[in-house]
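Propose amino acids for all 160 sites.
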């Protein structure tokens, strides 16, 4: 009871508060980001309706985002509300946007999906073609060139 009576927060002769209350605003992070982007030299790109970011079999989709870019710094900023969707769901709507080089990648993705799905009989025929991209295994004392030549010789003998 004696100690409770001695506690007071103000008035003549009371001690000053030692800890200063810090009011932190959430806009400071955004301001720092904008100042950093301005230093890089980012320019706004108008009239972009949709941005799709492909990640394995998931697509992160932004509809009507704010897009900024700095080609010199190789920096792209996409801000907006993202939606995560599966590649199969979004595929019909983006086929018209793809160019000829992207169509080849799309075919490879389709082959991978066929291999992953159970009972895909057609997927087994394309398996030897995909092995060409792999790096040959090394044996002690051999070089990559020698291992690659041996692999080519094996493929030629199997083909004939």
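Proposal:
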């Amino acid at each position: 009871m004696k100690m409770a009576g001695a506690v007071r927060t103000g008035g003549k002769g009371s001690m000053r508060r030692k800890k200063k209350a810090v009011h932190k605003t959430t806009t400071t992070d955004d301001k720092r980001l904008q100042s950093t982007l301005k230093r890089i030299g980012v320019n706004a790109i108008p009239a972009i309706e949709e941005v799709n970011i492909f990640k394995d079999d998931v697509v992160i989709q932004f509809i009507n985002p704010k897009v900024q870019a700095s080609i010199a710094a190789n920096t792209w900023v996409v801000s907006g509300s993202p939606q995560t969707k599966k590649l199969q769901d979004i595929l019909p709507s983006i086929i018209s946007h793809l160019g000829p080089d992207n169509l080849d990648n799309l075919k490879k993705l389709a082959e991978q999906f066929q291999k992953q799905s159970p009972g895909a009989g057609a997927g087994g025929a394309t398996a030897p073609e995909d092995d060409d991209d792999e790096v040959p295994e090394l044996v002690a004392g051999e070089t990559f060139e020698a291992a690659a030549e041996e692999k080519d010789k094996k493929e030629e003998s199997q083909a004939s």
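The chain has six helices and six strands. The longest strand covers residues 50-55.
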